[in-house]
């Protein structure tokens, strides 16, 4: 795909910077936004440009109600052209009315993913970048930022057996035979319309495609909602959050009910641990990582069937 040139950028409406990545969103018009995502200072990959045949698959899986938006190379990063300037993560705590719109958007995201998951891969793809980062942290010895400190804490609370279990889950989670997976499905990659007609929803896609079981994609998104429910519940480290009352989890839980609950559960754990690893690598140390580590200890001790998935 030819790199973008002669762009009308318009004003910058959002900037988000961590050690892992730098994102800036420009809005040249009311119905156009440009998302430029670049590597952060710790110089870890942010994903790759999309191969032509994957671009066609993503375009074919898009519908009038959910559109997979693929990037083009620009400078040292990737550029997405969208209609919406804000993600579902921005609107997450905006109240019941917006939550209704977000729930509708997530329903369409799940339908879009279901269409994507119909495409079997002839040759397995590389694991998702987040899983690669997680395995490097688990295996050492090069751990960015506060990676060593977090690893020591995890070893203390999970034990060597817990670390080994997560490592095995990570190695088996994606990058193997199966169907085409979106990779890194999160509220930060979902762009709903929250004014006027709430649809279609856009999904920043393509840079982290991988292969494997559909449970990885849905469990990854459930992992983020689990983390948010954990925080909203006062960071109760003694029990795993139950998402059955979460206003956004309904469509995902219903879809996940048809998947292997053990694989869904594994993806939930991997998503939270990857986020912990990324925070420790790219941000100042946060003592709440102690509480997250206890949450993972609880999730490791839970039976394979994740609450709410069956």
Write the layout of secondary structure elements.
Blueprint: E1 12-17, E2 21-29, E3 32-39, H1 52-61, E4 66-69, E5 72-74, E6 77-82, H2 88-91, H3 96-116, H4 129-139, H5 147-173, E7 174-181, E8 190-191, E9 201-204, E10 210-212, H6 215-232, H7 250-256, H8 261-282, H9 288-301
Parallel strand pairs: 4-9
Antiparallel strand pairs: 1-2, 2-3, 3-6, 5-6, 7-10, 8-9
What does this structure look like?
This is Aminoglycoside phosphotransferase domain-containing protein. It comes from Actinoplanes sandaracinus. By secondary structure, the protein is α+β, with helices and mostly antiparallel strands. It is built from nine helices and ten strands. Helix 4 packs across helix 5, helix 6 (215-232) runs antiparallel to helix 7 and helix 6 (215-232) crosses helix 8. The termini are far apart. 43% of the residues are buried.
C-alpha end-to-end distance: 43 Å
Order of helices and strands: EEEHEEEHHHHEEEEHHHH
Characterize the biggest β-sheet: 5 strands, antiparallel
Percent of residues in helices comes to: 40-55%
How are the strands of the largest sheet arranged?
Answer: 1-2-3-6-5
The number of helical elements comes to 9
Sum up the overall morphology in one term.
Answer: globular
Regions with little confidence, pLDDT below 50 for 5+ residues: 305-310
Give average pLDDT, whole number.
Answer: 88
What's the β-strand tally?
10
Counting helices, strands and paired strands, the structural category is alpha+beta
As a whole number of angstroms, the C-alpha radius of gyration is 19 Å
Strand content: 15-25%
